[in-house]
Amino acid sequence: MNPDAGPDSAPENTSAAEPAESAADATGSRPSGLSRRGLFGLVGAGAAGLVVGGAAGAAAGAAAASASSQRDAIYPFYGARQAGITTPAQDRLHFASYDMAAGAGRDDLIELLQDWTYAAARMTQGLEVTDGGAVGGSPLAPPADTGEALGLPAAGLTITFGFGPTLFSTDDGEDRFGIAAQRPQLLTRLPRFSGDSLRPELGGGDLCIQACADDPQVAVHAIRNLSRIAFGRASIRWSQLGFGRTSSTSTSQLTPRNLFGFKDGTANVKSEDAKLVDDQVFVGSTDSPAWLAGGSYLVTRKIRMIIETWDRTRLEEQERVIGRDKGEGAPLSGGTEFTEPDFEAETGAGTPAIDTDAHVRLAHPTVNKGASLLRRGYNFVDGNDELGRLDAGLFFMSYQRSPEQFIGIQRSLAADALNEYIKHVGSAIFAIPPGAREGSYVGAPLLA
Amino acid sequence: MNPDAGPDSAPENTSAAEPAESAADATGSRPSGLSRRGLFGLVGAGAAGLVVGGAAGAAAGAAAASASSQRDAIYPFYGARQAGITTPAQDRLHFASYDMAAGAGRDDLIELLQDWTYAAARMTQGLEVTDGGAVGGSPLAPPADTGEALGLPAAGLTITFGFGPTLFSTDDGEDRFGIAAQRPQLLTRLPRFSGDSLRPELGGGDLCIQACADDPQVAVHAIRNLSRIAFGRASIRWSQLGFGRTSSTSTSQLTPRNLFGFKDGTANVKSEDAKLVDDQVFVGSTDSPAWLAGGSYLVTRKIRMIIETWDRTRLEEQERVIGRDKGEGAPLSGGTEFTEPDFEAETGAGTPAIDTDAHVRLAHPTVNKGASLLRRGYNFVDGNDELGRLDAGLFFMSYQRSPEQFIGIQRSLAADALNEYIKHVGSAIFAIPPGAREGSYVGAPLLA
């Protein structure tokens, strides 16, 4: 990794690396431990005067970085771009949106991002969070790491941080962190879309963390420990667990199925297409603002599926709505899964083979001024509602160079035949800063 | 498998089998398709006169039973005992409790269990649900299978059915299904325990289904399709997703960690100990009632962990509360993880090495008249609460020959030091009938 490489030319941190000692070295450069506030999060408001440090209990963490299997990739944390964007989509998600505490200021934000950087750099390498002292810590202090991932491999964990519009100034215009002038012009609450049924408590947020891994316990462990470290400075506003990825971000991955039973994300931006990735996913070095070069924009939409209605729809109607066949995933204009849809094709009867309001047509770059999205969504089931129906759907996430890509496509989808079967209930947008260089922290180009 | 073998001598269906044609044959014996009511569930109340069957679309399911890897076991569905009890605990859970519809009668219950048996026997073999016609069904009908598991292997899926106390008669004494006289005497709502904080909507139920798999999408697919088939006859009362097993049920499995960060279930009943399994887990042939021989009792407890408080407790206190060390899982009386705890051991100061109110002491068979449980719990995170804290904990499940085993142990735990950090919010109990023989259905000994 060359920390001086420009954001446009440097690849994202997606190559699998060994869990070697060098990983531990890499995490030790700037933040050699948590800040006093981060340590405070570990003990809470009620505790004081604890002895922190000491050698006892060091054995506790010995198993942390052991036992790797084929799916147990370890991705570098530091780099020109944050990991977790073009990284081959892992199987599981824990996503959390945070609000800064009332009264927190610029220094608190910087310190929090430094602490988060320190802890994320360790956890993504399969290492325990420490307080800067011995692994395992003192028996007289609360453990710095909550422990449920002890003995588990890194499981491909990536931790990706983002900044919401309200971080730059509140709706009242208050510039809490002295960064209002740095707000990307396009980073504003998304416009209202046709059919939106948004619940404020399921959207928005000052900050976000996306934790993806091939083991849900590893993703949950990451969000839990980062939330704990944030104690007194930021707390979770909303969160989401996802159990099955609904997109491939690499040509090496099989296309998964969403809860409508269809293959999803066949035409997704893939990391191997470097030109498309540079063009559509990452903010360029000549884009504005400069601090966001090498970063991206993330849109999240919690989309509840009305699966009972869908399940009672006949197969040919399901396929008409999507514009693909259900078994193979081929466009209804013919071919196989990866055949480009032919929107001019007609059936014998002279009607379009792919309906005018089919999802695949309205989401396609050809009807959206060439815009595409790198999708990274997950299936979710949040229990059931009072009528005994599964509360299930798609937690949609897309990364794009500009929010206008998402907005344009979402407006096209106003006519989508699929709308009868879905309801958007949560919405958020975040600016995703570039990756941190070793010795620095995520967000430094904005705040340093 | 010998369907005539007695329930005491026959092993549970836990040997991994090939996804061979014989599996498909096995599922075709009695229920060669869904009942008319089961088919009705596939189309819903609004649809009528659909053409069901036909050859088109048969290709859709072709990939279903392909692609097996090392962890992709396939367990037989039919057998003297239900699978999913001593089966090596899979990584993921989707559990659902159902209430029968108002007005449903004995014939509805029988038909539902026959439909569920038919569909479960297929899904556990990695096969699609069909309506009895061609795989994939007609384009003019809703697909019989919802499709999100197409192309996925069986992933070790087991589906385990149970009967709640209210199935045998309501609290008002109404004998809806003509089985009140068959109610196991011990199958009654659990007594109130010290510290219970139960919410009725998170417990109870006429019927339950436990779906365990190594892929959450496979477990979710099973519950979703069985719920759909139940349409008009039964609906979900409550449900629970679990993302990480917290017990081993086989000596071949590593001990996992719960969200307190401790290894859990070290002393669990393991399937390899046939004598203990027969003695403690399964109802014997001389027990009462006779129809339950080869079955078991399942207790579920949704236990919310107060993880923020726990996380601020110092390491030595955490270890004192559990009675084991956090890193290795060894009892505080010394040794390694699998060393038996020595409750007589004292520290130099003359105090017990394992505290008198340590969890490991109070849960141990030696203080519970030799009773043990086969635990099969899962970690859960159900998002976060309004204070920004993770809504997380343990979905405890235990199988035992008699509910009195659980009741006795839970009463011992009234003094458990761990109680300061947990809250029981959901509770249910179910009689688990023996396995179904090929050509029959789950529950036939009770209802046939």
What does this protein look like?
The structure is a homodimer of 448-residue chains. The first copy, chain A, is an alpha+beta fold and 448 residues long. Chain A has helices spanning 21-27, 36-43, 106-123, 165-168, 216-229, 274-280, 307-311, 315-322, 359-362, 403-412, 444-447, and strands spanning 92-100, 158-163, 207-213, 234-242, 244-245, 296-305, 374-375, 378-384, 390-400, 422-432. In chain A, strands 5, 6, 7, 8, 9 and 10 form a six-stranded antiparallel sheet that branches. In chain A, strand 8 and strand 9 form a beta hairpin. In chain A, helix 3 (106-123) runs antiparallel to helix 5. The longest helix of chain A is centred in the N-terminal third of the chain and has 18 residues, at 106-123. The two termini of chain A are 22 Å apart.
What is the tally of beta strands of chain A? 10
The helix/strand series of chain A, from N terminus to C terminus, equals HHEHEHEHEEHEHHHEEEHEH
Oligomer: homodimer
- If you average the pLDDT of chain A, what whole number results? 86
Shape of chain A: globular
**Given the helix and strand composition of chain A, which structural class is it?**
alpha+beta
Radius of gyration of chain A equals 22 Å
**Residue share in helices of chain A?**
10-25%
